[in-house]
Design a protein that fits this description.
The chain is an alpha+beta fold. It contains 2 helices and 7 strands; from the N terminus they run ββββββααβ.
């Protein structure tokens, strides 16, 4: 019997899911029973508690949809991909925004929307 099971994970740009628990030292310990979610590890977005709770609820919903299925890298990647798309929808609805103080601003989810101001005229 293997005492150190392989760590299953899904990592996208803004979502990391690990089949693991976090121990007292903050280290990941592989688990077949617990999923750990890390949202926006590079702080690319500005978050409020409501938007973050929406991500956690969506995560719970997606995990529940896989109830009874084998815990595999593929299933975790599907959940991670679905959450990445969910983040994009939050950004497009203005519920989160780009963190312009982030160390690497790259607009990975598309260019930010800028409210138009009728008093400004731009000519190119």
């Amino acid at each position: 019997m293997d005492d150190n099971p392989m760590l299953l994970k899904s990592t996208t740009r803004h979502i990391r899911i690990f089949a693991a628990e976090i121990d007292r030292e903050g280290e990941l310990v592989p688990s077949n029973q617990v999923l750990t979610l890390d949202v926006d590890p590079d702080n690319e977005f500005n978050w409020n508690e409501d938007a973050l709770q929406k991500v956690y609820r969506k995560f719970d919903e997606l995990v529940e949809a896989y109830s009874g299925a084998d815990l595999t890298d593929y299933n975790l990647r599907r959940i991670g991909s679905d959450l990445e798309h969910f983040l994009r929808s939050l950004l497009q609805k203005g519920e989160i925004s780009y963190n312009l103080s982030s160390r690497a601003i790259n607009y990975s989810m598309g260019l930010p929307q800028v409210a138009s101001d009728d008093r400004q005229n731009y000519e190119w």
